[in-house]
C-alpha cells in the first residue's frame, strides 16, 4: 500500500506544526513586548537588540525544556537499548516465571527447549542467579 508522506508521517507533521506555531508566536509576542519595553524606557527599537534578546530567551527555553525532555526520552531509550541494569529489572522475574512454568508443564523437554531459545537469543540472561531447574539441578544462564 502506497500511502502519502502526509499520512505516513502524520504525527511528525502535527508536531512540526505545533512547533512552528509556538515558535512564531513566541517571536511575534516577544516583538510586541520588546517594543513596549523600549518605549517605556525611551530607548530606540532596534531589530538587532530584539534578535539578541529573543535568541537568548529561545535558547534558554530550549535548554530548560527540550534538552531535558530529549535526555529523558533519548537517554532512556538508549539505556534500554544497551541494556542497563535498570532496564532489565522487570525481565528477570518474567523470564524466571516462564522457565518455571515450562519446566512444570513439560519437564522432559524443558531443558532442550530452553537451550534452543538461549542459542537463538545468544543466551542473554539478566539474572545472574537464574533459576535452578527441578530436573537435573543445573543452573540456567
Could you characterize what this model shows?
- The protein has 141 residues and is mainly α.
- It has two domains: 54 residues, no CATH class; 57 residues, no CATH class.
- Helices cover 75% and strands 0% of the residues.
- It contains five helices and no strands.
- Helix 4 packs antiparallel against helix 5.
- The longest helix is centred in the middle third of the chain and has 36 residues.
- It starts with a helix and ends in a 21-residue tail after the last helix.
- The C terminus is likely disordered.
Tertiary shape:
elongated
Secondary structural class: mainly alpha
Total DSSP helices:
5
Q: How many domains? A: 2
Helical proportion, percent range: over 70%
Order of helices and strands: HHHHH
Give the integer mean of the pLDDT values: 80
Radius of gyration: 29 Å
Report on the biggest sheet: none
Give the end-to-end Cα distance, rounded to a whole number of Å: 44 Å
Q: How many extended strands?
A: 0
What is the strand content? under 5%
- Unreliable parts: 127-141
Give the SSE layout.
Blueprint: H1 5-8, H2 10-40, H3 47-82, H4 85-105, H5 107-120
Helix pairs in contact: 4-5
List key phrases describing it:
mainly alpha, 2 domains, 0% strand, disordered C terminus
Please provide a brief summary of the model:
By secondary structure, the protein is mainly alpha-helical. Helices cover 75% and strands 0% of the residues.
